[in-house]
Design a protein that fits this description.
alpha+beta; single chain; 5 helices
């Protein structure tokens, strides 16, 4: 699918002028990411809500005859809901970017889907117009594999609110129910279980029997 009109000269010129006037929105909300049991490995960062970013973008880009559009579409093949963010100029030129929102199955939970859509709209719009809406943590360990941890995000401002728990896996973001802390076996029981597993593995005659 094309990501821009055949020419973007007029749009690029107008966007360059608009970006000279754009400012980053105020980071008035705080998110806390937990990558383990409550109280362990917590990181907080500030970010700007979508509403404040929209106010700045619409006002500044509108003065240069640039409109912003955000539409959703269902990709049945991938089983995903996708977001397309478009900057359209009065000349008819345009540029767009796509952003995955959530699996189609999330439509059964409107609150969770709405939270994912808000996040997608904020990231996609801020990226496309070139503004920053959150702290730069420079912390790659925040994005951890789903098999290693169960991460939750809590947002707070003056009123405070909580978003649904989410996990990441295979390039998709999906909601996950709260789970109890992993059970830790005593040393002797762990050793006994290890020995039973090793004994079972050593007794496998072939790859087919292992698969079975």
């Amino acid at each position: 699918m094309p990501q821009s009109s055949e020419t973007v000269a007029a749009l690029a010129s107008a966007l360059a002028k608009a970006q000279a006037e754009l400012v980053n929105p105020e980071k008035s909300l705080t998110a806390t990411i937990r990558t383990g049991p409550p109280g362990e490995r917590e990181r907080s960062f500030r970010y700007a809500p979508l509403s404040s970013g929209l106010d700045i973008v619409r006002k500044t880009l509108g003065q240069h005859e640039i409109a912003t559009l955000q539409t959703t579409a269902i990709d049945q093949t991938a089983g995903m809901i996708n977001l397309t963010t478009t900057l359209a100029h009065a000349s008819g030129e345009w540029i767009a970017s796509d952003w995955p929102v959530c699996p189609i199955a999330e439509t059964a939970n409107p609150q969770r889907m709405g939270a994912a859509l808000t996040y997608a709209r904020r990231y996609a719009l801020f990226t496309l117009v070139g503004i920053a809406g959150e702290d730069d943590l420079d912390a790659p360990d925040i994005c951890v594999p789903a098999l290693a941890t169960d991460a939750s995000i809590t947002e707070s401002s003056t009123g405070g609110s909580q978003l649904p728990r989410q996990t990441r896996g295979k390039a998709k973001i999906r909601g996950a129910a709260s789970s109890a802390s992993p059970m830790v076996l005593p040393t002797d029981e762990s050793a006994a279980l290890r020995d039973r597993l090793l004994s079972g593995i050593s007794g496998l005659a072939s790859q087919d029997s292992a698969a079975t």
